[in-house]
UniProtKB/TrEMBL annotation:
Protein name (database record): Uncharacterized protein
Keywords: Disulfide bond, EGF-like domain, Signal
Ranges for domain Fibrinogen C-terminal: 127-351, 352-538, 570-785
Any Pfam family hit: Fibrinogen_C
Disulphide bonds in the chain: C121-C130
NCBIfam families: GGGWT_bact (NF040941)
Keyword Signal in record: yes
Length: 785
């Protein structure tokens, strides 16, 4: 009995002594009998590994004459350590955190993996310690934004390649700024590269070829012209590009801000003074220009195109040659050769999915480009013509006609696959249209020019907000014409027809055969009553060889028949986020439209007439037909009919106003027919209680004799969720409508969602400043700015 009591006492004393004494973090090893070996004591320390690793010192503890039933996990040892050295304690217990300091490079995330670690690398970064970025863009996405020398590891370089990365994820492959490095080099030197990455250099043609052999790349050229030195302004151009084969041919696409790179027609091989690949008979361009380059022409120094590897020669240098303006680093701008003071040539990985994507990346010239809509379609790549001038910029052109040189009387297979040349007249192909429009939201634009009359070209532009080609018959579905013209009908999707596959539904007539081109035909009982067809016979009024030319030909039927000289059909992604984006797109009629909030479609009423248009209406009342005494859920989600009285919904307001700045407009009509307008320059709704944000105050447009509401920072209230500041009242219940209430006394100032009354009283829709008048009609709307 005494032994048991002694054991319990010792245990209590130990528990008091052990356990990482909180102030000093002193830990104790105790001894107790080894149950597996009679007469033997063993050292023990209870607690988890985290407990032991928190110790700052270890000491010998009491001896237990019998094994103790510990409630903690145990650590046993025959060789305890007694020390005040925390480093020794950590070594003894194996406490070192393998993730401290972080062994993962380039912002990789370190995770414990047993007694070791594992790195979770970002994006295109590999390696046990995230030490192998694929390229400079991989570093940029890992938030490594400092320009400098880095080693990258594309698949072609398992041992790595040292490059200069700029702060935006570009690999710099040429840099010149002071003429310190001679660029008049032979083939082998341009092939392998020369210079120092810290100064002027050429990375090497073989490196360019290997880098651009996988994935898609964009070339950027950044120039400072000699006459711009004092302003320190740089000019930048961009093109999709690659370098290929043993002669390091340069292939570029499209135009940058209207300027081609050398020539778009034929890829040019690289030339040096000891390997002449320039195709200019009798002249070695590299020898003349004193630097290797992709030469387009150099019949004389004067007619040479741009060359950024020529002899470094500035206009103000008295030691230059007499023809310094024709030699030297130079660039052709609109036919004028301009001397260049400094240049950087860079490349960056970029996979454009459409023309808009190219434009947003900075490639803004009209032209033929390769896009990669693989994320959305079964087509991994396709060549398209991009219209970068029409706003909003970045349209894919799928039909172009202007001179009749291409025959559009084609069979089903030809219309399916496409025909013609993208640089001339063409049809892109129905299958491409179907796959492109199978995902996302697309708009259609048709641009028409009539025959020249008195040196004027009649022009028509038509747009539809929704455009899709569907199914095996390539059915056309269009919705939302901005102007009321038929293509050919937006009510029923119409199938595509060709002379060898009649899908027009017109009994006894093959419209494509009659009209001479494939189309989505609405009717063609006779040539005279045919609807629009932009793929018909190319026929102009002055063509004496055309039968019934006033009915054949490419034509458009709107208010009148419009004979077409040239036509262009194009599509573009279009997911408007608000009514202002619709207005900027060309929509000028007020009505119900679809917008997209965080990729979710929402129907809204757009006021396109008030104050330059583009207003999203979120409340409308005019006759009391809709009950506004609603609960929290109904005000959150919205109720009513957008064509009548409605509340759009608090959650939609919160999402809509979560980005950008928004102005509020309140339009009021009292029971005497008087009108008022209140404008507020900042309006937003935040949080789960849909609280009005700070910063609301009236603009100069507000009528001066109006008190402005003091409900800023007020939470929304309904009869079943009372968020007002009144202790003994539920304002929403009293006013019979949800609102941002300040107070709910009999003389409440503001409440546009209260019970609808046709006469002035203390209830109903009201706004301060009306005297005894009640509010008969009201609209609340907002617009981004």
């Amino acid at each position: 009995m005494r032994r048991l009591a002694l054991t319990s006492l010792v245990a209590c004393i130990f528990v008091t002594l052990w356990g990482v004494v909180s102030a000093e973090k002193v830990c104790y090893f105790s001894q107790e009998p080894d149950v597996s070996q009679s007469g033997r004591l063993r050292w023990v320390m209870p607690g988890s590994k985290e407990d032991r690793c928190a110790c700052t010192s270890t000491r010998p503890g009491p001896v237990n004459v019998q094994p103790v039933r510990w409630s903690h996990p145990l650590f046993y040892t025959d060789t305890p350590i007694f020390t005040d050295d925390q480093e020794d304690i950590h070594d003894y217990f194996g406490c070192h955190d393998p993730c401290q300091p972080n062994p993962c490079q380039y912002n990789g995330k370190c995770e414990k993996h047993g007694d070791s670690f594992k790195c979770d690398c970002k994006g295109y970064i590999r390696g046990e310690r995230c030490e192998k970025p694929y390229d400079c863009l991989a570093l940029y996405y890992a938030r490594i934004r400092e320009s400098g020398v880095y080693t990258i590891y594309p698949s072609q370089y398992p041992q790595g390649l040292q490059v200069i990365c700029d702060s935006s994820g570009w690999i710099v492959f040429q840099k010149r700024f002071n003429g310190s490095v001679n660029f008049s080099r032979n083939w082998a030197e341009y092939q392998g590269g020369f210079g120092e990455l810290s100064g002027e250099f050429w990375l090497g043609n073989e490196n360019l070829r290997r880098l651009t052999s996988e994935r898609e790349w964009v070339l950027e050229i950044e120039l400072m012209y000699d006459d711009q030195f004092s302003s320190n302004e740089h000019v930048t151009y961009r093109w999709p590009f690659r370098v290929e084969d043993d002669n390091y041919k340069l292939l570029v696409e499209g135009f940058s801000d209207g300027f081609p790179f050398l020539s778009m027609e034929t890829p040019f091989s690289f030339s040096t003074y000891d390997r002449d690949n320039d195709d200019v008979n009798g002249t070695n361009c590299a020898e003349m220009e004193r630097g290797g380059w992709w030469f387009g022409q150099c019949g004389s120094p004067q007619d040479s195109l741009g060359n950024l590897n020529g002899e470094y020669s500035l206009l103000g240098d008295p030691d230059n040659y007499t023809d310094r303006e024709n030699r030297g680093m130079k660039w052709d701008v609109t036919g004028n050769v301009i001397v260049v003071r400094s240049s950087q040539m860079k490349l960056r990985r970029f996979t454009p999915r459409d023309c808009e994507h190219l434009y947003r990346f900075g490639i803004k010239g009209n032209g033929v480009y390769t896009i990669y809509p693989w994320k959305y379609t079964n087509i991994d790549r396709m060549k398209v013509y991009c219209d970068m001038d029409t706003e909003p910029n970045g349209w894919i052109v799928f039909q172009d006609r202007f001179d009749g040189l291409v025959n559009f009387t084609r069979n089903w297979a030809e219309y399916q696959d496409g025909f013609g040349e993208l640089s001339g007249e063409f049809w892109l192909g129905n299958e491409k249209l179907r796959q492109l429009t199978s995902e996302g939201q697309w708009a259609l634009e048709i641009e028409l020019y009539g025959p020249n009359v008195d040196d004027t070209w009649p022009v028509m532009h038509h747009r539809w907000l929704s455009f899709r080609v569907m199914g095996n018959s390539y059915d056309l579905e269009v919705q939302g014409p901005i102007v009321d013209f038929h293509l050919p009908s937006s009510e029923t999707p119409l199938s595509f027809s060709t002379y060898d596959r009649d899908n027009d539904g017109v009994n006894g007539t093959n419209c494509a055969e009659v009209e001479g081109g494939g189309w989505w035909f609405g009717q063609c009982g006779s040539p005279q009553d045919s609807w629009s067809n932009l793929n018909g016979y190319y026929s102009l009024l002055d063509d004496t060889h055309t039968r019934v030319q006033q009915y054949f030909g490419i034509m458009w039927v709107g208010a009148v028949k419009f004979l077409v000289q040239s036509s262009r059909m194009k599509l573009r992604r279009f997911s408007p986020s608000d009514c202002l984006e619709l207005y900027d797109f060309g929509v000028t009629a007020s009505g119900i439209y679809t917008i997209y909030l965080k990729q979710t479609s929402v129907s809204v009423y757009c006021d396109m007439e008030a104050n330059d248009g583009g207003w999203t209406v979120f409340q409308k009342r005019f006759n009391g037909s809709v009950n506004f005494t609603r609960n929290w859920t109904e005000y959150r989600d919205g109720f009513g009919d957008l064509s009548g009285e409605f509340w759009l919904g608090n959650e939609k307001l919160r999402v809509l106003t979560s980005t950008y700045r928004w102005e509020l407009r309140v339009d009021l009509v009292d029971d005497q027919g008087k009108t008022r307008q209140i404008n507020v320059n900042r309006f937003s709704v935040k949080g789960s209680d849909y609280e009005l944000d700070r910063g609301m105050f009236p603009t100069k447009k507000t009528v001066k004799d109006f008190d402005f509401p003091l409900f800023n920072k007020r939470k929304f209230s309904t009869y079943d969720k009372d968020n007002d500041d009144e202790q003994n009242s539920n304002c929403a219940a009293e006013q019979k409508g949800g609102w941002w209430f300040e107070e709910c006394s009999d003389n409440i100032l503001y409440s546009l969602n209260g019970e609808y009354h046709r006469v002035a009283d203390f209830l109903g829709t009201k706004w301060a400043g009306w005297g005894t008048n009640g509010t008969f009609k009201c609209e609340m709307k907002l617009r981004r700015y």
